[in-house]
User: Which sequence fits this backbone?
């Protein structure tokens, strides 16, 4: 490591392709290293928040609810109760005497005012420490009101964002719980009456309408979507999840565990897909047809791909002429997105020379390593000093990241792509691939860069 | 109107204490700040700050995990200090606590002192610590707590000097630059604490530095105890968290508390006070700017008279903006803050006694309450941070984005709203929102009110 970023403990988490070493990951962040990671609560909230008719109640001090109020771009076709941020707003006396009474009072108020079918109660750092029995309070409130009141075990310090995904999935599994035999009977009836395969789509949060785009594709190829986890979903729809015959997973980081549990309990098989980029989208639709096994569907898939490609491929080609040969750096939350981005950039003639994630898994880093070219840098849980160093050393023209990384890229005179949950245009599917190309073009080819390093 | 007392906070109108502490530390030269708590706290706050200021915001965290929570976080905090020093080489580190650190009973001052003793042969380092539990109060009190810690932990017994201490509330970098221009016009010697006019609004430079230039130097803070006077800009804060009061009782530096200089009356108060303390007349140039503000007030007074506003956010901003509204004939319907600072009600209540109409002053507010007050009283204007977009979207009340944070528009860091010139700009922004709304709707609303097809049909 260079002198200015000298934290020897971090060396194991950084790898240059070609080096004979395995990348370390899935470890606690190093104190004082200025990690870009968020917390368990953040991960849980990301996954559950798009459930449109739920009350999301944060049990804790105000900050956790404040910093997450409607900052994400999940869209809804119906209810928008989820866009509120509710907090028990714990104060000093609650810390001393416990927050259970206040939580119960808040639950009563919210149920009376909004009549939600489900309330998610998020645990924050101090809840476990002050000894509140979240489960008991939730159980009592559920009995009082006859609705689902589910605790989410998301105390910030018990791990990182991934632990939050898992906590959210555990909560969802409780929400959809039914005896496997009942699920099997209902599945059979549902599949028969629908006249087409009925599946679940996992790990899409309907950012800027992405879920709707994919649902439309699936509809056109003759597949009915039972429910999406969790983009534009409702409590009633989610409860029918065990009736599906297949689970498609987009965001693996958050939903692999969920799909595994549903396979184990309800015998629902799952397939990993990615609707980011032209090629991945086309391949994923083929995977759907192959999994559901009809030649007729496979034909419809090819027809859809041909139709969409005819519209979008030429437009993407237009942007590619300006972008080919550029070098990209990627620093995002999870491995699925990073992998997809490496492939998607290649469609634009752009090589990824630096790639990292906050919470990627070992096997995902292996895929990244296989995909990138020699000399590319791969890193886990990077910090601003490392991002700065490798953006410059690797000669990246642009960075993909979230809000915190954006100003750093700009200060370094690099283009930037917002690939985070507050995006306002969809990046999924064929149309998303075009939006992506346009966004890359809008930042890489802006005239402003000309003026930055010009001498006067 | 009477609203039921609620336990739930529905859509928060304030942020937590460590946020204020971080922001204050960003105004200190060669400083880094560490949040003693779980990793997420620093990340969430960095995200908000980065989005508002459009600047890289590096904040360390002790990244407390389960082990640290059970057995104490001292080792992790020391490691965090070590690592932050290795990468950033700061001259001073500010440590703010979180609800987690406070609940498990961390004594950060003791840990910091122990650290300084153990590492005394390394590069010189100052550490300022502030207790800022998330369950304690709002970011405004966190800001106060950190500024007080900086002064009480770094100021030294020094000889009397002619300088003036200016300790401000949470302003924009452009506001801070405007204050400095004013002091320079008056040829004052001063220490401005904190000063992030450069650190959180950096010019683009060919080479990037992890530690931005600018900020209040520690050497200047050390001398604050010898100043001629302290002016606290922002006077809603709690007495025991006041850096100015601490300097007064500890070193006998007289302390004057003034509202933020927004609005004619508040600007006059600051200039008169500076003129008194420094014994110099108000510069001619300022008289010109004052005259221009008066001219703007007259130009817009009829448009402003249509304004019915709700004002929310940081208590000091709420006070100053509410007085600006009152000066200009904009009726304030509600002045609300998520903080529980009781002084807002006292001081605004006193000021309001001069007016014909009164408004609701609410502390501990959330946006559910602010929205109800706005809708029930026919508000047509909202002034405050960008969370107010909720009022815009749900109740159709246009929002003038002001203060911190502004997350859905650019330029929060460049927004000038203080002094005569800044007030003029702010007043124009407010008036123009009223005008925009009027032009958008008056044709339709007049037609709806007065046009009757049967009465206007020809023979």
Assistant:
């Amino acid at each position: 490591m260079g002198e200015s970023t000298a934290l020897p403990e971090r060396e194991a988490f950084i790898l240059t392709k070609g080096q004979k070493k395995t990348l370390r990951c899935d470890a606690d962040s190093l104190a004082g290293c200025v990690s870009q990671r968020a917390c368990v609560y953040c991960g849980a909230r990301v996954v559950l928040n798009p459930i449109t008719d739920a009350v999301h109640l944060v049990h804790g001090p105000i900050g956790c609810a404040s910093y997450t109020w409607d900052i994400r771009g999940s869209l809804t076709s119906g209810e928008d109760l989820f866009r509120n941020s509710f907090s028990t707003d714990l104060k000093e006396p609650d810390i001393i005497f416990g927050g259970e009474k206040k939580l119960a009072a808040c639950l009563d108020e919210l149920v009376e005012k909004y009549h939600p079918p489900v309330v998610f109660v998020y645990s924050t750092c101090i809840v476990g420490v002050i000894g509140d029995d979240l489960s008991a309070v939730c159980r009592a409130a559920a009995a009082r009101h006859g609705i689902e009141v589910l605790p989410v075990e998301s105390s910030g310090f018990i791990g990182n964002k991934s632990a939050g995904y898992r906590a959210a999935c555990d909560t969802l599994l409780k929400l959809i719980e039914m005896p496997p035999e009942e699920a099997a009977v209902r599945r059979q009836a549902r599949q028969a009456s629908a006249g087409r395969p009925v599946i679940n789509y996992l790990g899409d949060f309907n950012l800027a309408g992405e879920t709707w785009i994919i649902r439309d594709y699936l509809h056109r190829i003759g597949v009915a979507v039972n429910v999406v986890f969790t983009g534009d979903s409702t409590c009633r729809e989610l409860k029918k999840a065990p009736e599906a015959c297949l689970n498609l997973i987009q965001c693996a980081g958050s939903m692999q565990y969920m799909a595994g549990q549903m396979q184990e309990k309800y015998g629902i098989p799952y397939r990993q897909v990615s609707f980011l980029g032209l090629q991945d989208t086309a391949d994923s639709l083929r995977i759907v047809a192959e999994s559901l096994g009809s030649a007729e569907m496979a034909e419809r898939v090819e027809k859809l791909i041909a139709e969409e490609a005819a519209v979008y491929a030429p437009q993407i080609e237009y942007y590619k002429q300006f972008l080919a040969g550029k070098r990209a750096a990627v620093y995002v939350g999870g491995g699925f997105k990073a992998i997809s981005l490496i492939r998607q950039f290649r469609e634009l003639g752009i090589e990824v020379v630096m790639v990292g994630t906050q919470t990627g898994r070992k096997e995902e880093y292996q895929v990244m390593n296989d995909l990138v070219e020699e000399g590319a840098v791969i890193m886990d849980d990077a910090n601003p000093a490392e991002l700065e160093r490798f953006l410059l050393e690797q000669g990246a023209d642009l960075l993909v990241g979230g809000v915190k990384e954006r100003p750093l890229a700009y200060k370094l005179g690099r283009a930037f792509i917002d690939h985070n949950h507050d995006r306002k245009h969809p990046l999924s599917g064929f149309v998303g691939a075009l939006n992506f190309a346009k966004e890359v073009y809008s930042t890489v080819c802006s005239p402003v860069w000309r003026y930055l390093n010009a001498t006067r | 109107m009477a609203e039921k007392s609620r336990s739930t906070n529905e859509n928060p109108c304030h942020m937590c204490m460590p946020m204020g502490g971080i922001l204050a530390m960003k105004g200190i030269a060669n400083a880094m700040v560490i949040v003693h708590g779980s990793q997420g706290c620093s990340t969430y706050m960095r995200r908000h700050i980065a989005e508002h200021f459009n600047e890289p915001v590096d904040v360390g965290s002790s990244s407390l995990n389960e082990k640290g929570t059970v057995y104490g976080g001292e080792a992790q905090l020391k490691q965090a200090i070590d690592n932050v020093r290795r990468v950033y080489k700061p001259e001073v580190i500010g440590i703010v606590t979180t609800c987690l650190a406070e609940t498990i009973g961390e004594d950060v001052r003791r840990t910091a002192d122990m650290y300084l003793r153990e590492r005394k042969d390394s590069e010189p380092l100052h550490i300022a610590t502030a207790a800022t539990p998330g369950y304690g109060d709002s970011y405004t009190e966190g800001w106060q707590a950190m500024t007080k810690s900086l002064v009480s932990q770094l100021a030294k017994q020094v000889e009397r000097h002619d300088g003036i201490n200016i300790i401000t509330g949470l302003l924009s970098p452009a506001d801070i630059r405007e204050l400095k221009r004013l002091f320079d016009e008056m040829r004052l010697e001063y220490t401005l604490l904190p000063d992030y006019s450069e650190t959180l609004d950096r010019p683009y430079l060919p080479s990037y530095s992890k530690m931005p230039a600018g900020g209040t130097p520690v050497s200047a803070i050390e001398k604050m105890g010898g100043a001629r006077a302290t002016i606290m800009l922002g006077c809603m804060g709690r007495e025991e968290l006041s850096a100015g009061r601490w300097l007064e009782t500890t070193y006998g530096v007289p302390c004057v508390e003034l509202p933020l200089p927004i609005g004619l009356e508040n600007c006059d108060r600051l200039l008169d006070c500076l003129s008194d303390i420094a014994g110099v007349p108000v510069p001619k140039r300022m008289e010109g700017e004052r005259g221009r503000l008066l001219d703007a007030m007259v130009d817009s007074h009829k448009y402003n008279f249509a304004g019915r506003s709700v004002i929310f956010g940081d208590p000091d901003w709420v006070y100053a903006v509410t007085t600006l509204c009152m000066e200009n004939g904009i009726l304030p319907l509600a002045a609300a803050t998520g903080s529980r600072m009781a002084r807002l009600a006292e001081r605004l209540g006193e000021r309001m006694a001069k007016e014909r109409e009164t408004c609701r002053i609410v502390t501990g507010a959330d946006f559910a309450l602010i929205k109800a007050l706005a809708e029930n009283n026919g508000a047509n204007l909202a002034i405050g941070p960008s969370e107010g977009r909720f009022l815009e979207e749900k109740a159709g009340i246009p929002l003038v984005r002001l203060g911190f944070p502004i997350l859905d528009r650019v330029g929060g860091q460049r927004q000038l709203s203080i002094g005569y010139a800044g007030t003029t700009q702010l007043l124009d922004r407010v008036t123009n929102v009223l005008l925009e709304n009027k032009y958008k709707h008056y044709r339709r609303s007049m037609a709806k009110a007065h046009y009757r097809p049967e009465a206007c049909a020809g023979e």
Q: What stands out?
A: Chain B has two domains: 17-258, 284-445. Chain B has a mean pLDDT of 95. The domain at 284-445 of chain B is CATH 3.40.50.1980 (Rossmann fold).
